[in-house]
Amino acid sequence: GGKGIRVAWHRQDVEEGFPAVRAEAKASFGDDRIFIEKFIESPRHIEIQVLGDKHGNVVHLFERECSIQRRNQKVIEEAPSPLLDEATRNAMGAQAVALAKAVNYDSAGTVEFVAGQDKSFYFLEMNTRLQVEHPVTELITGLDLVEQMIRSAYGEKMAFGQSDLKINGWAIESRIYAEDPYRKFLPSIGRLVRYDPPAEGEKDGYKVRNDAGVREGDEISMFYDPMISKLCTWAPTRIAAIDGMGRALEDFHIEGLGQNIPFLAAVMDEARFRSGKLATSYIKDEFPEGFNGTTPTAVQLDILTAVGAAMQRVYATRARSYESGLIGEARDEWVVAIGETRRRVKVGGEDGAVAAELLDEGRTLFLTDIDWRPGKPVFKAVLNGVAFTVQAAPAAEGFTIRHRAAKARVLVLTPRSAELHDKLPEKQAADTSKLVLSPMPGLVVSMDVTAGQQVREGEVVCVLEAMKMQNIIRAERDGVVKAVNAKGGDPVAADEILVEFA
Questions:
Q1: In what order do the strands lie in the sheet with 121-127?
Q2: How does DSSP assign 393-405, residue by residue?
Q3: Which stretches make up the ATP-grasp domain (predicted)?
Q4: Tell me, which fold does domain 298-421 have in CATH?
Q5: 3-state SS class at 124
Q6: Residue 146: pLDDT above 70?
Q7: N or C, which end of the chain has less CB nearby within 10 Å?
Q8: Whole-model pTM above 0.90?
Q9: Using one digit for the tens of pLDDT, what is the confidence trace for 404-447?
Q10: What is 40-286's CATH superfamily?
Q11: C-beta separation of 265 from 251 below 8 A
């Protein structure tokens, strides 16, 4: 799905895209035949789930909206669609059923459409299989599609008709991918050092379901699809399902490789997504510069401050118990530094509760019901009466704390250390202007330059493949190639030097 697609705006795009598409198709499916079609900008992707039996019965199980995509790969799906009214839903369903009946279809399948914002729709293709996103349909209909496929294959007659099917509530699916959103969503490989998904079941008015094929300790390689799991939530309304997804993502913890959980959390909080004004161009429209996390809100700043102060208090208390007395300091006044923000706090409290008095703001942050200990990556507590969950861990300096999509380095310093810290010079990044680095782990498909060759900005340097997707690496400057450090067929790591310029 979505592999081997290129949009050609210019002749050069055709010349470069044609062989790349054929190669991707060959690698993924063993078939390099391709076809060309008109490109429609900013449509919505809506599909109808159909189900048939061997007795000529076919029904549709309503629609799924799959418009949140990146590189033609679905990222977030939901059922039903926020676009469709009853008349359009019935018209699309009727066409999907007619198609399935015309070919005597007798299993679960999906009829996909491109839809305009005016509710016009156009047939795209039919997938004669179970789709990745089938759980959202199961959640709103109460049907087990795998069970129904088996019953149909066994020759059983469908036990229900179209009039028996109703939409109940709203379901959202987030695909947890092994990719780094902070590096333009490039594939990420490695071992799942920690894999701790949220608890499944119903609570607080929403349901959580997580379909996964991995376990903690498994290896995610460059040779297969990047999906780790499918996280779904159901609730009576769309906004409640979105809010439930946000909380479920808070509770999902993965270590060992890059993953897109912070990005998914950002989408759940984003106003356009919450309003339902979707398009396949949504990610490009709303994150044109890529994803770099979100700026902490005032509430999140309080959470980061309180958690940092609480963690520092635990570590300082532990340090005071060491006979050497070399680690930690017996004090209750600190400066919490988050980015450019400095907050003087006075920290006190008892087991399971912390009070962080903001000395310059005249208010106190009360943390209660703290569920955390050193070494535990998830910190749960209640701040001034509101429950929250963050991912928190000690860093080389201070703590790294993430609440939903807001990730920050939190320093908890003595007042004197804070004064000196602000006078330290900024660390300078290494000069890589003469190097072409591999943006991801992968396999070199072709090396298109040689030592001594004159290269112009924008020309193809090499092609990398990872997780069945090919990526063209272009020169970012004019220059003469000094050295080539890889050849076709070589595996390369992220940030490995591929080509050096003189």
A1: 121-127, 108-115, 44-52, 58-70, 73-79, 170-177, 227-235, 206-212, 201-203
A2: EE-SSSEEEEETT
A3: 1-154
A4: Glycoprotein, Type 4 Pilin (3.30.700)
A5: strand
A6: yes
A7: C
A8: no
A9: 999 999 999 999 888 888 888 877 778 888 999 999 889 999 99
A10: ATP-grasp fold, B domain (3.30.470.20)
A11: no
